[in-house]
Amino acid sequence: MSINPSVIAIPVYFLLIGIEFIIHRVNATKSYNLKDAMTNINCGVVSQITGAFLMVILFNAYTYMEANYGLFHIPMVWWAFPVAFITFDFMYYWAHRLSHEINLFWGGHSVHHQSEEYNLSVALRQSSTQILWTFLFYLPIALLGVDPIVFIVAQGINLVYQFWIHTESISKMPKWFEAVFNTPSHHRVHHARNPKYIDKNHAGTLIIWDKLFGSFAAEEERPQYGITKPLKSWNPVWANFAHYTEIYKNLKRIPKLKDKLRLLVNKPGWQPEYLGGYQPAPEIDPNYKKFQNRTSTRLNLYVIIQFVVIMLTTLSFLYFLTEMDIAQKVISAILIIFSVASFGLLFEHRKWSRGLEVIRIVFMSIGFVYIFGGLNPGFTLLIIALVYLLSSSIWFKTTRQKAVTLST
What pTM was computed for the model? Predict the structure, then answer.
């Protein structure tokens, strides 16, 4: 069984999201949108599933670098943890900052900024590709000789800390705290698309890095959240490829190889002068309407229940990861990613989304027996799979409604 800390952290995250949601409902605060929150979490699911494969490779690379090229080989003593934590936070700042300033890197990180709301669910909206661009920033920690376990602990603390700052429920922390640490106020600025706030407050835990390197901005007027070119989709898979697709389109428009390379490494919005030059972040349109569309209560309830099933499946996948063979891992990953993509397509009323969902229900039933039957064989699994197949199929049939045009 896996000791993946996500198995413990995810239920805690869901509990805190639920508490914030209830508080906001009681206070009549409109910061949660069903489809947006589910898309945030589904992006996190896709990130966890792909990360289960990528992190093995990247962790092995770190371990190899530390063992063979570490300068000091810092032992696992008490002082190694604060050293690793501060060093990691410093490198995180630069990895994060350059993820905003390099177009190719922004292709990964933009996923985290796509939500037009700001609540704890946004913290779970993570990219599946960002680690490919940012992992190199952490190899100097391996060269310093920080033990891989100490590195993972420092990374985990940094990640967990950042969860609570994705909220509007907290206005300001005490002045001394605001001066040193990243806070909800500082991070709201970071998630804003207001031109004055763009590319500010990149800190993970310590806001001092932004103050030292000139990227700090204090929160003044209430931020408008999201990216300058809204995603307008509830599909977590498309969310991971949207900006890369935009890069590809722009590359095709540029004739010169040198300018193609500059497009990749310059800031988002850069283009050659002969195509109009750099396009800065636009001013906020006071008449702008957030992306939204109507869906029936039956469909919403159906997707919510299926969503819960997939969350439990994801936790099981992470928990039993070390006991699965490669085929079980790959099939599980495909089914989970297929499922969360299908939910997004249903919310968007795509013409072929209903047929795709029927296929998903069938393959989920078969996959459940194949994957978990190998871990815990028994007739009960077959019964559960049949009940899921029949109940989901019958229920889904009752959710049909007239197509609704998505707002723009």
Answer: 0.91
